[in-house]
Design goal:
The protein is α+β, with helices and mostly antiparallel strands. The protein contains 11 helices and 11 strands. The strands form 3 sheets. A 5-stranded antiparallel beta sheet has the order 2-1-3-4-5, covered by helices on one side. Strands 6-9-10-11 form a 4-stranded antiparallel beta sheet. A two-stranded antiparallel ribbon has the order 7-8.
Length: 275
């Protein structure tokens, strides 16, 4: 089961290769220990532990079915605990606003952060959330990758398609295409604020945009747009808040349905693209 999670994510984006220092102790309110335990669950093919350590999602079976124990991974965890990398990539936030732990050292419930986790091979991103029963890893972006790999990518007419195509157009420095997916009368100056003089030539950014998993944000969750505006997820049929993870960067999109087509509100996305 869960060994297959790592194998799936390797084939989809990057290797799920993280090490666990079995002797390391971390403070009680630190997500690192949960991240370490989750990786052990993946390598041990422990579906029950995986479910316990992640934010509940009815689709979790897509990540926990049909694997086997990764003996080599477990052996590496024990032999080389120093090979572990867990790097904080996005600071702790509550409702889209930076937050610090309280006087007791604990973060409030609902606090989130983003980590880069790697061991030996390419990194993967983990979004964590503080819940009443402790820190959990949010599997929604992994599920988005699995669903995309097992079926057709959302096509024209969907909010996900519009968000992705806008980002691809920006990376290509294609003003006409970018405005096609933006709301009417969107400002090219805002969309291309901070853009380089020439497009990035290697194709690396294009690949990241194409592979970026995108998740719709529900009411009760909040994200900060590049302008600094904080938005809550919406259940309106004509407005959506989407968040992709492009490489190691969260990429939020506010979309509105206008005359039957999804359009993206302009943001200074190059502030995120160039990170």
């Amino acid at each position: 089961m869960l060994a297959n999670v790592s194998m799936r994510l390797v084939s989809l984006v990057v290797a799920v290769c993280v090490a666990l220092d079995a002797t390391a102790q971390t403070p009680a309110d630190k997500p690192e220990q949960v991240i370490r335990a989750l990786v052990r669950a993946m390598y041990s093919n422990d579906a029950a532990a995986f479910i316990q350590l992640t934010v509940p999602d009815a689709r979790v079976h897509l990540l926990t079915t049909g694997g086997s124990v990764n003996s080599e991974g477990l052996r590496d965890l024990k032999a080389d605990p120093a090979g572990l990398q867990i790097v904080l990539k996005r600071q702790f936030q509550l409702r889209g606003v930076p937050v610090k732990p309280g006087a007791d050292g604990n973060y409030p419930f609902g606090t989130t952060a983003v980590y880069m986790v790697a061991h030996r091979q390419s990194p993967m991103m983990m979004v964590v959330e503080k819940r009443a029963d402790g820190w959990k890893v949010d599997p929604r972006w992994w599920l988005a990758m699995v669903e995309t790999a097992s079926g057709p990518d959302p096509g024209p007419g969907t909010a996900t398609y519009a968000a992705r195509r806008l980002l691809i157009a920006l990376i290509a420095m294609d003003t006409t295409a970018a405005l096609r997916y933006a709301v009417p009368r969107a400002s090219p100056g805002l969309l291309f604020a901070g853009a380089p003089r020439w497009r990035e030539p290697s194709g690396h950014l294009d690949a990241l945009a194409m592979e970026m998993p995108i998740v719709e944000i529900a009411p009760g969750s909040f994200y900060r747009l590049p302008t600094g505006r904080v938005l809550e997820g919406s259940n309106s049929p004509d407005m959506k808040l989407l968040v992709g993870i492009m490489g190691s960067v969260e990429m939020p999109f506010l979309l509105r349905r206008i005359s039957g087509e999804w359009k993206v509100e302009p943001q200074p996305y190059f502030a995120l693209i160039m990170q």
